[in-house]
Amino acid sequence: MLSFRAPVWWSTAVRRLLVVPVTLLVAAGATGAAPAAAPDAGAATPDRLRYDVSLRGDADGSHWAGHQRVSFRNASDRPLREVYIRLWGNGDDKCGTPGKPSPVKVSDIHGGTAGRLSVNCTALRITLPKPLAHGERTALSFDVSVAVPQRNARFGREGTFRFLGNALPVLAVHDAKGWHLDPYVSTGESFYALASDFRVRIDHPSALKVPATGRTWTTRGEPGRTVTHSIAHQVRDFAWAAGPFRTATDTSPGGVRVKSYWAPNTPAAGVRINRKDGVAAVDRFSKEFGQYPYGEIDFVMTKDFGGGMEYPGLVILGTTAEGSAVTHEVAHQWWYGIVGNDEYGAPWLDESFAQYANYRFYGVNTRDCWSDVGWPNQSSALTNSMAYWSTHPGEYHLIYTAGPCALADLERTVGAEPMARLLKRYAHDHWYGVSTTADFKKAAQSVTDKDLTAFWKQHRIR
């Protein structure tokens, strides 16, 4: 969801839409992997990635250093001659300055030859020693260092608490459109990644609690230190946090472990609401979209974080006494996490779908919640990319308002039961894969005899 320091108008207006229902509905809920497609030149690659990471943090979790290895396969039927490492943590600071360098660095690269950093120091080209044929595997390894920036953001800090979202380097995706080397945006997300396996070892002072993506456990480290271990299968990213959190663990009736971490000054009422609604949402969405597959989800809550931010198995939540956007962020575990999409190219596919799920969870009345008169100009469309929204930030709320309203209108158009079947089947068919607007339009048309051409035009789903 909100991956930026939200301005006042956003916090007061949109957060209420995301958290406490105003006057703006419900369905039912199989998992499984989609059948493998035949290889082709445009296949998303490199795939079947496995990241093995070992990191050591300093006294307060502000600096981390260690080693990372990533192995991968070429899924395309064309030889893979290069790959790109995305250093998304450099997005806000770009290439830095002599006195303030970029916060994420990689060095001592093995398995390929590094080129120059590009795209404002968020992309590093690695030329492979020899072309990688279809179906072949190889690996890269490198040292990595991470310095947490002095800002309250998904990669940043709040008081004694550190957030490390998008801090770990990951491989870029190549598909029919070529290499996806889009620029970083702070309003929204730029990220496009394939489902990957992570095995991560985080060595940290024992005074710090470290929530992280994946199933986690701790072991004793050196004197005064603890090692948090995580194993995460089929996730698109890995995030962690660090700080003197208070903690609690719940288990949903469906068997998902929900671990809550919060700063001591976080409103207690909001923490209680998040724990209650978050546990309920995991099971609710499991029934509607397919069983949550990761076994564990962590809620990281602080008082002043702007909005919320989703990662596989971990969400960061700015929490007031009224709670937070917890159900929206939990919904993102399916819409972006399990059912992937290019978040830069088609952000509505995760944000609007997560907000539609949020509306349904709270029983929000969505009838007549949107009309054509709200579109600001002819070029504005629900399916615009972040290239548009980042240059029209005043319109970005449409993803969270017009988007879920369009999906609610689709439900009324095709019927509640067909819509429920559509979403569950659509999630099943794209489980751990990548969805597109064209995929969704085709799936929606398949559940109704009505021609949806006019519907797509009305809601500017292009």
Automatic annotation (TrEMBL):
Full protein name: M1 family peptidase
Native species: Streptomyces aquilus
Pfam families attached to this UniProt entry: Peptidase_M1 (PF01433)
InterPro entries linked to this entry: M1_LTA4H, Peptidase_M1_dom, Peptidase_M4/M1_CTD_sf
Range of residues in the leader sequence: 1-33
SUPFAM superfamilies: Metalloproteases ('zincins'), catalytic domain
Cofactor(s) the record lists: Zn(2+)
Keywords on record: Metal-binding, Signal, Zinc
One annotated GO molecular function: zinc ion binding
Annotated cofactor note: Binds 1 zinc ion per subunit.
